[in-house]
Specification:
- Helix content is about 35%, strand content about 20%.
- With about 280 residues, it is of the alpha/beta class.
- The chain folds into two domains: about 130 residues, Leucine Dehydrogenase, chain A, domain 1 (Rossmann fold, 3-Layer(aba) Sandwich), CATH 3.40.50.10860; about 140 residues, 3-Layer(aba) Sandwich (Rossmann fold).
- Helix 6 links the parallel strand 8 and strand 9.
- Helix 4 packs across helix 5.
- The radius of gyration is 19 Å and the shape is globular.
- Bound molecules: NADP nicotinamide-adenine-dinucleotide phosphate.
- NADP nicotinamide-adenine-dinucleotide phosphate binds next to helix 5 and helix 9.
Length: about 280
């Protein structure tokens, strides 16, 4: 029988996850199906309750449900608890297990694109304090980065996020305003943008990379466009850079393995397929 999975979000039309999962079904000859489910916030409780009947082996959860869905799970893994967000649901004997693979996607992408990037973990800057910043901070802390400085347009949100994440994370977390970047950059070996800036031509009004050390690595989790203005500026300064597309691809690996019992590979072929579909190349 075909094993079915889904991605639930609102809106969800833009999700490339079906493309990724269908590529793997074909490549590994797995009898699977993966579809989009547009679930408005007021419909989330009923949607999750309906999963208990077993029509799906599980599914991904995306914006705006990643935090709200926590409350509907019967159990969540350690990472989801620390991060405060779930992006994978697995249905097992009528129970809903929630887990999180955003942090894994980030780390696997960094390992792939910049081997050795975490050999001397020190101070890191995470720009943005929204949903995506949570998994990024968790992942960097796992690899030993500390202090992790969260810089946000709204400084209060950065401080609140640092406080909320601190209990489950073995790193010193601090919240700052975006305008503190220059003062903090001198010590930072790594900068990760998790804000929406960079999408569709937007750029930071004032995020000067000049004071970063020459050895710094600059990464963006925004992948539309692939080469964001931040990455272009870092390239121009001769810094190492990593784009965000690999994070999207790698975060799907644990989900696929959970539902279909097979660990798929992120290959250049898959990356090219998604780039073509998005019109990125
Ligand atoms: P979110 O929860 O809505 O957070 C948005 C963040 O962007 C907030 O920190 C917000 O600051 C900041 N921001 C928005 N407009 C800004 C502006 N004009 N100037 C400065 N900061 C601004 O979004 P999210 O879910 O965290 O997602 C953020 C980005 O990450 C999106 O582009 C998403 O596509 C991408 N993403 C990529 C992956 C991947 O796999 N590569 C995974 C997840 C997310 P305020 O708090 O001040 O509003």
């Amino acid at each position: 029988m075909t094993s079915k999975a889904f991605v639930a979000g609102h809106p969800v039309d833009h999700s490339r996850s079906p493309l990724i999962f269908r590529h793997w079904f074909e490549r590994y000859s797995i009898d699977g199906d993966y579809q989009r489910a547009d679930v408005p916030p007021e419909g989330l409780a009923d949607f999750v309750a309906g999963l208990r009947a077993g029509a799906f082996v599980g599914g991904n959860v995306t914006v705006p449900h990643k935090q709200a869905v926590l409350g509907f799970c019967d159990a969540i893994d350690k990472a989801a608890a620390a991060i405060g967000a779930v992006n994978i649901l697995a249905v097992e004997a009528g129970r809903i297990n929630g887990s999180n693979s955003d942090w894994y996607g980030l780390l696997a992408n960094f390992d792939d694109r910049a081997p050795g990037w975490d050999e001397k973990p020190g101070s890191a800057i995470v720009v943005g304090a929204g949903g995506a910043a949570r998994g990024v901070v968790y992942g960097l802390a796992l690899r030993g980065f500390s202090p992790i400085r969260i810089l946000n347009r709204t400084a209060e949100k950065a401080a609140a996020l640092a406080k909320a994440l601190a209990p489950g994370i073995g790193a010193e977390l601090q919240g700052f305003a975006l305008t503190d970047f220059t003062a903090l950059a001198r010590e930072a070996g790594l900068v990760v943008n998790t804000s929406t800036i960079g999408m569709h031509g937007s750029r930071f009004a004032d995020l000067p990379l000049a004071s970063l050390p020459d050895t710094a690595l600059v990464a963006d989790i925004v992948y539309t466009p692939l080469r964001t203005p931040l990455l272009a500026e870092a390239d121009a300064r001769g810094l190492r850079t990593i784009d965000g597309l690999g994070m999207l691809l790698h975060q799907a690996v644990p989900a696929f393995e959970t539902w279909f019992g097979f660990r798929p590979e992120v290959t250049p072929e898959l990356r090219a397929l998604v780039e073509r579909d998005m019109g990125l190349t």
